[in-house]
Amino acid sequence: MTLTALFSQMPWLTLLLALPLVGAILCMLADPEERTSHGLALVTTGLVFAIAVGLFVVYSNGGGGWLLQEDAAWITRYGIRYSLGMDGISLVMVLLTSFLLVIAALAAWPVRRYAPQFLGLLLLLETGLLGIFLAVDLVLFYLFWEIMLIPLFIMIGLWGGEQRRQAAIKFFLYALAGSLAMLIALISLYLLHGDQTGNYTFLLTELVNTELSLTQELWLFAGFMLAFAIKTPLVPFHTWLPDAHAESPESGVVDLTGLLIKTGIFGMIRIAFPLFPAATHQVLPLLGVLALVSLFHAAWGAYRQQDIKRLFAYSSISHVGLILLGLAAWQVTALEGSILLMLTNAVATGALFLLVAMIRQRTGTCQLGELSGLWGQAPNLSALFLLFALSSLGLPGLANFAGEILVLIGTFQTHPVWASLAMVAVVFAAAYILRLVQKVIWGPDCGARLLHDLTPREWLILAPLAILVIWLGLYPAPFLTPLHEPVQLLLGGLP
Amino acid sequence: MENLVQTALNNVNMWAIMPSIILVCFAMGLLLINAFLPRGATKPAMWISLIGLAVTAFSVISGWGSPQYGFSDAVALDNFATFFNVTFLIAAAMTILMSDDYIRREGYPIGEYYPLILFTTAGAMWMASGTDMMTIFLGLEVMSISLYVLAGFFRGDVRSNEAGLKYFLLGAFSTGFLLYGIALIYGVTGSTRLSEIGVFLNAHPSLLSNPMTLAGIMLLSIGFLFKIAAAPFHMWTPDVYEGAPTPITAFMSAGPKAAAFAAFLRIMEYCFFSLKPEWTAVLWALAVLTMIIGNVIAISQTNVKRMLAYSSIAHAGYALVGMVAANEIGYSAILFYMLAYTFMNIGAFAILVLAGKKGEENLTLEGLSGFGYKRPLLGVAFTICLFSLMGIPPTAGFAGKFYIFAGAVKAGYIWLAIIGVLNSAVSLYYYLRVMVYMYFREAEEDYSWVKVPVSVVVSIVIALVGIFYLGIIPGAVMDLARLAIF
Fold first, then answer.
1. Residue B479 contacts A where some CB pair is shorter than 8 Å
2. Does the distance separating the beta carbons of B387 and A150 come in below 8 Å?
3. What count of other Cβ atoms lies within 10 Å of the Cβ of residue B457?
């Protein structure tokens, strides 16, 4: 058997999901006194990342359809199948997720309290996240959607700050209320499709062909969108997020992965829009307005924060506003920009969360009022902080700029007013980021404390992120190529 | 006269009641054996009753697919009965496994405990297989009377006494309703045989609006709704569930409740199918009320046992949703849900039994602070049971709720499904709170007094296997449930 044949026959997608799961179980069983579980987590996430890179190299020019598919019967009586598929969009998402999880596993190194459980949950979270990007059967999608909640809930509730219990419960209730709405819509759609065609199935590829009246579409769309909007989060469903970030564990690991749970946007692109094109068409203007509200409200929220973690939480909501604006513009460039912005936001804001964790570890605080003049004490750390902060602000040449400019250009073509308003919001972003940088990095040196600069391990965490931020800013094309055709396919499916 | 006797004898078919005969023989034998055992020796009784359940289970399962009818159609051991019988037997076995150390710890090592559970199970089996009002009534009485005794089993304990007495008084009262209903229906149709009642009512449509018929149906339903603990007939549940010995509470909320569902389902479907739109409308309202009352009151409970009692009211509400749907998915989902509920609820109670100190002092939320750390494996098992009760995939609870709500949507009751789902969202809060105490609070004690006997572990393992089996591959059991309905 040749190597290529072997390659094409491997169940790569299942492997992507199974590896972290097995790793999670092994981690939980590891000796809590040693660092076995840390090593295991690192190896597992590394392997998953290696597979993702391999797939990316092979399939990044694959076109618009499914690049890889796996399918097996599961609950035959109800047409529920174990069906996975990877298209250009999920390829990019999988690559980024697996990359950030390697970083997360590295960043989790200082966690010593119940370390095996912590890392096990982290790996379980990876399975959930990847599953969302790969599931084609809606029941399977729902399964991963829910699986993802449990590790996050426990991680916040167990390793978090003082108000962690409330934050964990708030997060869980919000997320679950949304997904239950999705469940009802899912079942209704399944039955409607089954009654029409006699073929009872949960396969996304089949359900797309269901004939629905506009009213039906709108209701079902609302069910799905509620789940996605809460997870994304879109104002007014966002209040759980700042609490969750503020109370999440100190290591910043959860914040990093928390950015990935903005799977809601992926859910819209993969599920809600293709399934209900007419409803999407009706709702897009509303989505655009809500996106603008998110953008401004969260930017204002970020400006008012004293707690840096909360500030970044709000800033990421604000970015989500821009991402959704790109979706609402319903135009190729804007959509590609949105997906790119999703990636860059996760990288840049994720890196910032990790840096805050490092600062907090050194100074014991992450309140704006209590920090100043870090440059004099830890220049390397401050330089990287500046780099990621500027990227988050949208400085040309850095990651977020690439996404933002695409979104704005695209939006301008369909909705010039929206784009102009969004420009203003970018200025807002500059305001809160610069205020932050000015207070934390510059300012009078509080010379009383002697802080050490970045350790080699911290370099190892931050350097790849820094490289990626610059790479995405200067040359995002490799990541845009696989998106192109799926995005056009998505747009083509609508009036 | 001779002819009549002959016909009756010809109609006897012992195979139709064989499983329950086996079980009752074991129970009675056990009563005799207990008389000769030294006081406090309950282990042999436990083993004998487990063997009895196993033999019965064998006889039940071997009858799958070949229905037996007997006693002039008063008893039918069909797939429907078989499915429920398996549920009862599992419930009984899990209860017995978690009981032995418990009754010893609480100071009541009395062997009669086990035969009573077996009698309850036998009664439940008659209810599921009864196709005549009298058979069902007989089963209900055998089941209930044994349960009254079990609820008040801790005769030195005030709460247990209260539970027993309360259950007995209210139960007897509701039985009165049931019997009155049977009498009225008999008066209208001249029969107690379910199928004959159905045929008769269908052939005489004018009788359907007759006040006597309607009153009969109403009284009959009240009798069953009481046993199911549906609102507004649920008032007895919290006190009885809280006061009764914990394993008995677990058993009551699974086995006998399923039995009441079985009989209720069969009666409504066999006798009153002509009035389906009317009774589903009534049950719609009751299902909504039951879910809301169960969930809302469960929120404010600080005693975990009482919280589970209220939540069991809510779960009865979910099952009622399947009955309102009154279609293939809905009915088979009830069967599925009852089995799933047996696993997850008895599993949760089994851990509660371990966590409770002597005298059941330690059943509050506070009492579980940090339990998850000090006893990690028990904590994880409890968490899994709670996740299943919440209805999170991939557990049995999710699959069950999924089918129930699918049935409701299929029958066009979208709002009912939405109300049900909203209720599940409410229920998250109080289940999560248990986890919050278990994991997110520092432990105040080391729980070293929590003894983990092997038999209870077996019970918990059965629960976990059931939860994951039904959750991950629900198809197989759901297929059986479909074959089991009418």
1. yes
2. yes
3. 17
